[in-house]
Structure formats: C-alpha cells, structure tokens
Amino acid sequence: MSDRREQNNGGESVQNPAKALGRPFLPGPDPAREPSQPLRMPRWESWRVLPQTTSEFCAGHGVIVVLSLFCLAACKGGRSSSIRSPECCAAYQHSDSLPDQPPQGVIRLAIGGDSRDDRSHVLPWAFREARRRGARAFFFLGDMEITRLADRFFVAQLAELHGIPFYPLLGNHEVEFLGVIKLPGSRHAVKEFKEDFLVAPGVKLAPLPEVAYAADLAGFVHFIALDNVSPSGEGFGAGQLAWLAEDLRAASAAKKLILVGMHKPLARNPITTHSMEEDGADAIRDSDAALALFKQHGVAMVFVSHSHMYASYRQDSVEVRLTGGLGAPLVKGLAETDGGFHHFLLLDIPPRDSKTPLQVEVVRFHGTPTRDQEDERKELRP
C-alpha cells in the first residue's frame, strides 16, 4: 500500500502515510480512569437500568423492535379519546375546594397517574405541591415513563416528596414496550417493580404474580392497589379477584374506610372505552366482578387513570375519579372545561367517627400543557 500526497490547510503538498484498512476507530477503556460503578438509586437497592431479559431480547430480536417502532409511528392513530357531545365531559368536572392545609384530625392524601413523557414537568410540581399542602401519602396510578427502561428518570424526582410515603401501582407502560407490546420479560418486570418501588411502610403484598397489595394508613384508612395490566389477557384474573374479595371482607368487617386504585378504568364506565373494555370479554367479566365486590363491601372511592384527563363520576353507585393528568400528553381536542388539563387530586378524609363526606380537590397545573397530536375521537362515549 503506497503513500499518497495531499494538500494541507495552507495549500502545501504533503506526504500522507497510507493507513492499513481495518475496523473504524473505537476508543478503548482509559486506564487512568476508575471502572464505572453501576447506577445506584437512593432507597431502591435492587435498581436495574437494563434488565438482562430485555437486553437479550433486543440483541436477538432487534429487527422486530425496529419494525415495531415503525409500525407504531405509522399506525399512531389507534388509542384515542375525544369529546362527542356536550354531556361528556363538562358534566363530570366536580371539584371540592379544600383549605390550604388539612384541618386538625383530617387525613390528606394525594393521588394521580400517567406522568410518562412529561415534557411540561408536571410531576415534580405535583410532588412539591402535595408536600406543601400537607399530604400524608402519594398514591400513584401507573405509567411512570414511556417505557420502564426510563424509570430511573422518574425515581430521581421522588426526592421532591421529601419522605412522604409513595404507593405506586402498575401501568401498562411498566410492562409493555411503549405501552403497547408485551415483551417476553414482562413477568420479570413485575418482579422488579415489586422490589424497586413497593418500599413504603405497611405494604402487604398479595401472594400473587400480579402487583396487588393493601396498605393501612392512620389505623382506619385501607388502600387497595389492583393490577389490571400485567395478567395474561389483561383483566384481573381469578386469583386476584379471590384475594380482593377476602381483603375487602376483612376490611369491611373492621369498619375501615376503603379506597381502591387501579390503572385502567372499569369497563362500561360513562366516560371512555380506553379502559378494561378494550381488553376483551374476559377482562369485561373481571371488571363487572370487581365492581360488584366494591358495591357489596362499601368501597368509599375508586381511583383510575390511563386516559389523560380528569372526570368525576358514579359507576353503579360507586364513586370514581379518573385522574390521568400528571404530565402525559392530554387527550387531543378535549377542552379544559371537559377535563383536558394537567392535575393531581387531594383527598381529605375526616376523623373516623365523623359524618362529613370525603372531599376531593382537583389541583390544576397552570404551566404550558402537553397535548396529544393524535386523533382521539374514537374512545370517549357520546
């Protein structure tokens, strides 16, 4: 291989030694540097950034992942929610006005869901505001990030709670690729979610593959977290429904105030079909069975998210709050008067023997909103 002459920047002819053909240059390890340490997140000692199962999947099936991304980009008009009539959803916008700080004896809780792709920075604001206004705990209804591989960004923001107990439940983006495609390691993702996030005091995990648990607060408030995203075929599954029935029976017998959280709304609700209704006949039957149990055991309120909006409604006499406003892109075309705004909820629970009803304030975010650019007109009921 012969040398060649080239011109330098001054226009002079110089001899340029020929280089042997080979692999492109890649910088090797710098011996002067110490070996890098794995990411360690505070309070989550088992934190994983890229689980082995997902890494193996991407290595072996990279083409499938690329094609899936292409399909999602090309077919992005799928899941959507938008208004079809004046009754949906301006009539479902009830909000109580709470004092800045909870009165003596009142238990104040914060609730919200769907912070993935939070370009408006709603989540850190919500954490700070919940702490400032005296919340004793934060119930998170799922979908931390666009994919669970980015959950480390969510974890970093938990510092804004300054130690307020955090009770999350599973969303579809925690177990599905971009919230749509279930990866082979989804069961492993559930196990890691339990180990990494369910560290708040008093969490009593159900002896199930799903992420279901109960927690007691202040002695008489009983919170139940359900999983309607990880079971095969969605729904709850027979095992989780059996556990729910027994837990509700015990809590009701102890005269506790029962709150329930889940990611997807129940099927056949008056607001949106972006719910368990999308998951088929088995999921709808599970939804109906859960609703019957809620009625039977006097559940005080159910909290759901999944659709990025706010609505307050009753479903077969059970009080429900749809609160998916923690930063995910808002429903396209949904006016603020219909629930199209970022927010979280504050729930005030009076002392045990009080006859005062529960009060819920919708705390609205006043920054620049992030809105979905997709046509979401097919999923809200007329």
List keywords for this structure.
382 residues; Purple Acid Phosphatase, chain A, domain 2; seven-stranded mixed sheet; globular
Summary of the model, kept short:
The chain is of the alpha/beta class and 382 residues long.
Report on this model:
The longest helix has 16 residues, at 238-253. The termini are far apart. The protein is α/β, with parallel strands linked by helices and 382 residues long. Helix 8 (238-253) links the parallel strand 10 and strand 11 (257-261). It has 9 helices and 16 strands. Helix content is 24%, strand content 18%. It has a single domain (52-364), classed as Purple Acid Phosphatase, chain A, domain 2. It has a 7-stranded mixed beta sheet. The protein has a 5-stranded mixed beta sheet with strand order 5-4-3-15-16, covered by helices on one side. Helix 1 packs across helix 2 and helix 8 runs parallel beside helix 9.
